[in-house]
Amino acid sequence: MRRAVNTLRMRWHLPSVSTLAILCLLISAPQQAGAMFVEQMAVSTRAIALGNACTADPPGIMSVHYNPAGLSRLPDQAFSQGLTLPFIFQEISLTADPDMEPFMDGSSPNPVNLPNGNGASEASKVDPLAGTSGTSGPSMYVPILNDTIPFLAGPTLGISSRKQDSRWTFAYANYSPFAVGLTQEGEDNPARYQAKALGQQHLIYAAPALSYQVNDKLALGFSVGMGQTATYATLDMRMPNQMTALTKVLGDATKDLNIPIISQMTLPPPWFGGGVGPYDKVAQLSITMRDDFSPNYNLGVLYEPWGWLSLGITYQSEINVEQVGNWEVQYSKQFKAMIDWLGQGNILPVTAAMLNLPTNGENQAGYVTNNMTIPQRVQAGIALKPTKYFQLLFDVNWVDWSVLAQDKFSFDRQADFLRFATLMGYTGGPDTMIIQRDFEDTISWATGLEIFPTDWLTWRFGYEWRPTSVQEELYDAMYAVPDMHNFGTGFGIKTKSNVVIDVSFAYLIGETMEIPNNGSTNMNSTDFNKPVYNPYAGLDFKEEMTAYIVSVNVRMPIHVMKEHMHHQAEMVKSAYHFLNPFDGE
């Protein structure tokens, strides 16, 4: 009799149990990049060496970005071309929380916490990520190929022109002010549950600019950037929590339960299609989006009251981005079986229809849109040159990261995982995914030193403090990074023909970020009532991040470039005549 009562009780509680269990595949699409070294790290070779302390002494044609008023300092006509290669490395390690209690199916990140107490029970119930670590390397999205490559590159190109004795200087440039990309190394890398590959970048493919020399002390500048923004991510998904453990418990307990006719009409065994274990992979998500026209503008002021003192300030507008792309979710066999189970019998399909739950376990794909704002920035600097042998620079930078309070992704159809999420209190709707971010504004600073031992050689050194805007309780292993220290150095050589060659190196090291179990609702929370993605529930998280940057740039007067191109053309012509025996000349 007691068994019958318990069976009836479970039957009445089935809708709430099933929806809670299946929900746990939740909001896990790529979050937008937070305040980190994605900002202006591959724009100017000289700025990289100075730790980006250059607002009061802008770097050549790339003044278009740092302070357009600095264009007035350039020669009458100039050409510039550069290439920057950032190498970003992220290492995460996961350890079991010693106080974490096993899930109700007996699964635990701690082998000693399993039912027999010595770790010798079912190996499948031990979290395979506990005690593991993994490294991620750089990657980049290439618009022309519409694909990714396993390295980052920041090419720059610029040209400027000013009529003789004119107060106006005109310029054009292309560069990438925001870029980051990572790809995990190794099939067993634990980072795959946050991102197997990810990236976000903003490429300015056309930036016309002008500056006006008001007098011998004051210059003003303005530039407009026409850019492309792209986001991509691929990740495996799992859902370690009590509700998935419950589906596994009930699935195992009912696999041999079969009451003729009654079982098939009410609750076909095994319940939940056998269930899903907390540590089972349940899906793989892929998403790619881009906006081919996301404009912005920069304003700059450069004031030089005396020859030894220069002051600069720059305002960079926010960038409103409307990305459109594709999304695809490939569900695992176990998860599909659990959804299919809701379409069996007589009661389950009716219940699923009333609760707007899927009953056909199929992969999903379609279009996705995302509206986001790349924040506005204000940077101010001072340059002091007490002697002709060295110059000191100092900059302060404010970024309005709090404009990114949440991420919002709109799908062209109802997503199955969002349909379950609405039953847990999620209010975004079955076709819109909202992730709370609550970024904080950042104030960073940088200092630089330039040494001029001769008229043709310059040595540069720089340091920049780059704090993160991501709150610890919303941290994740996807885009969020810790506070970073940026060390730069490099040199510049100027030839007799006024060709300037700059070479720079930078090393960025992040402060070790440690998030204890339940420390972040975007990564390792065990509270299934919160509609976020937590693949590391029960685990303590540790992250270390470093980056290396190599950059080179060449700037020369236009007439020198023309002479060089003419010389190259003559060499090609001579080689053609020499190698062509049928040439009559």
Give the SSE layout.
Elements: H1 2-12, H2 14-23, H3 45-49, H4 63-66, E1 77-96, E2 133-138, E3 140-142, E4 147-149, E5 154-161, E6 168-184, E7 197-213, E8 218-238, H5 242-253, H6 262-265, E9 281-291, E10 296-306, E11 309-316, E12 319-331, H7 333-341, H8 347-354, E13 364-374, E14 377-387, E15 390-399, E16 406-411, H9 416-421, E17 432-436, E18 442-451, E19 457-466, E20 484-494, E21 500-510, E22 513-515, E23 539-557, H10 558-579
Antiparallel strand pairs: 1-2, 1-5, 1-23, 2-6, 3-4, 5-6, 6-7, 7-8, 8-9, 8-10, 9-12, 10-11, 11-14, 12-13, 13-16, 14-15, 15-18, 16-17, 18-19, 19-20, 20-21, 21-23, 22-23
What is the helix content? 10-25%
Give a count of the beta strands, DSSP E runs of length 2 or more: 23
Largest sheet: 21 strands, antiparallel
**Low-confidence spans:** 1-37, 117-121
Structural class category: alpha+beta
Radius of gyration: 29 Å
Mean pLDDT: 84
Q: N-to-C terminal Cα separation, in Å?
A: 109 Å
Beta-strand proportion: 35-45%
What's the helix count? 10
Tell me, briefly, the overall form: elongated
Structure in words:
With 585 residues, the protein is α+β, with helices and mostly antiparallel strands. It has ten helices and 23 strands. It has a 21-stranded antiparallel sheet that branches. Strands 3-4 form a two-stranded antiparallel ribbon. Helix 2 crosses helix 5. The longest helix has 22 residues, at 558-579. Residues 1-37 and 117-121 have low confidence and may be disordered.
